[in-house]
Design a protein that fits this description.
about 300 residues; three-stranded mixed β-sheet; globular
Length: about 300
């Protein structure tokens, strides 16, 4: 292709959800409410874990970090998607697109790693309860959280370093609700076969391996609980089944989108909505807001806040 005969792309067009104006308004209201609930819910969890003395344990420390990553992941994609629903020209600048992809894979990679850490935490708590406090020390927890951020950074940088220098010319239409690597790479005016394989090996395998490790850890936990107490199995099934549902909703779309990134599934906007919009809302509900100890801590903090206002 002769560079003189094509124009350099400075922005991309995000097709988003097409349809009549009434449908766009419906999507705008729906996703605005979901995003608001996601932000409020995750902030509430972080504040409760931070200021409640009864929640200063390894599990809740990890849950607080998960809430922060969920909020950041949703913020990287959802606000732009919401504002585009009310605009006729749904565009995003080239560097805005690159920034969105960077943070989405940064927080996504960190969250995948943190979910593995959380499964390990539950394994130690259930299978080695007498050594739980010794193994899950504050030093180890801080290292685990730091490791999740490092893996997220390495994960996104390994792909973005190769993507940011791609030449884009001519085609600039992204058939999705946000910029994402598989669809953006397709628009480059050079051969990207090697990069396509790298995306599959990086994002696809990372999602698949993390998902399998989580399922294995949950299975080990259930087997251990069954061997120790048949009565405890029902409670464990109730808790872990909800966790597995959320994990599946997060990892399932990731596996399909990134393990087969250049098939028709790559343009499936419904899959993208699940792991960037729905899952960040479900995580606080499933992991924490259903938890009686968390609910009690929230009520206690609310009463303390009300009493402090009245005394003032």
């Amino acid at each position: 292709m002769d560079p003189k005969n094509v124009s350099v792309v400075n922005e991309f067009i995000l097709l988003g959800f097409s349809g009549p104006w009434e449908l766009q308004i419906f999507f705008f209201v729906t996703f605005s409410l979901i995003y608001s609930a996601t932000v409020v819910g995750n902030i509430l969890i972080m504040v409760t874990v931070t200021f409640s003395s009864t929640l200063h344990s390894p599990m809740y420390f990890l849950l607080g970090n998960l809430s922060f990553l969920d909020m950041c992941l949703s913020t990287a994609t959802t606000p732009k998607m919401i504002t585009n629903l009310l605009t006729e020209h749904k565009t995003i600048s080239l560097w805005g697109c690159m920034t969105q992809m960077f943070f989405m894979h940064f927080f996504g990679g960190a969250e995948m790693t943190l979910l593995i850490v959380m499964a390990f935490d539950r394994y130690i708590a259930i299978c080695k309860p007498l050594h739980y406090r010794t193994i899950m020390s504050h030093r180890l927890l801080n290292r685990f959280v730091l490791l999740s951020w490092i893996i997220g950074f390495i994960h996104t940088m390994s792909q973005m370093v190769l993507t940011v220098n791609l030449p884009f010319c001519g085609h600039n239409i992204v058939d999705s609700i946000f910029c994402d690597l598989p669809l953006v790479i397709k628009l480059a005016c050079v051969e990207t076969y090697s990069l396509e394989l790298f995306v599959i090996a990086d994002s696809g395998l990372l999602s698949f391996i993390c998902f399998i490790l989580l399922l294995v850890s949950y299975t080990v936990i259930l087997v251990t609980v069954q061997q120790r107490s048949s009565g405890g199995l029902t409670k464990a099934l109730s808790t872990l089944s909800a966790h597995i549902i959320v994990v599946t909703l997060f990892f399932g779309p990731c596996i399909f989108i990134y393990a087969w990134p250049f098939s028709n599934l790559a343009s499936n906007k419904t899959l993208a909505v699940f792991y960037t919009v729905i899952t960040p809302l479900l995580n606080p509900i499933i992991y924490t807001l259903r938890n009686q100890k968390m609910q009690g801590a929230m009520r206690k903090l609310r009463l303390q806040h009300v009493n402090s206002i009245q005394n003032f």
